[in-house]
Amino acid sequence: MNSLFDTxxxxxxxxxxxxxxxxxxxxxxxxxxxxxxxxxxxxFFLWYIVIxxxxxxxxxxxxxxxxxxxxxxxIVINFIFLLSIYWNRLVKKKHKRLxxxxxxxFLIVYISNFTIKExxxxxxxxxxxxxxxxxxxxxxxxxxxxxxSEKILYMTRDLLFWISFGILIYNVGAIPCxxxxxxxxxxxxxxxxxxxxxxxxxxxILNICYIIGFIWCHKMEDKxxxx
Length: 227
Fold this sequence. Notes:
Blueprint: H1 14-29, H2 40-61, H3 68-89, H4 93-116, H5 125-147, H6 159-183, H7 185-190, H8 192-216
Helix pairs in contact: 1-2, 1-8, 2-3, 3-4, 3-5, 4-5, 5-6, 6-8
């Protein structure tokens, strides 16, 4: 008799799931370094991603259903949470206001998708693009503040630096892949292997940056998060 595990199909894409699990495990091991900072919620976010990926795979491989609604929900949680990290870390009020504007713009576009497309059947492409662009600008604001402060002396020992570096590379590369798949499907099909490999590579680079950050960062403490 086959086990439930035997009903799953495995592909190259599943390597990203293993990478995400490894990242979450390493983040858990080094949790003591950032447990007194806002980034402690980042660990919960990583495990949330793992659960979403496993559940999404279960729906496709076992239930033979459509898992788009899971990832459409994930999109809003992903971008709003990551933007909240930068809102919390940025010092200048004008930069914080920009983060709020980014988040509101993303939410407006995301909600508007309900009137444009069937929620369960489509990945919210425009929402993803707006969210990715917002994160890119948020990371740039973070780097601007870092470069204009004393923190530049030890920025590579800051966990958020590596998170930001990974987010920047991933989103700059992911936007063309998503746009190609959504609006230039015939071209995407012809170059599927190349674009798919690029996208999976971006996920690996993102997680490698997270792992470097967990291992290399100094212990972080925000007074308001201390017990």
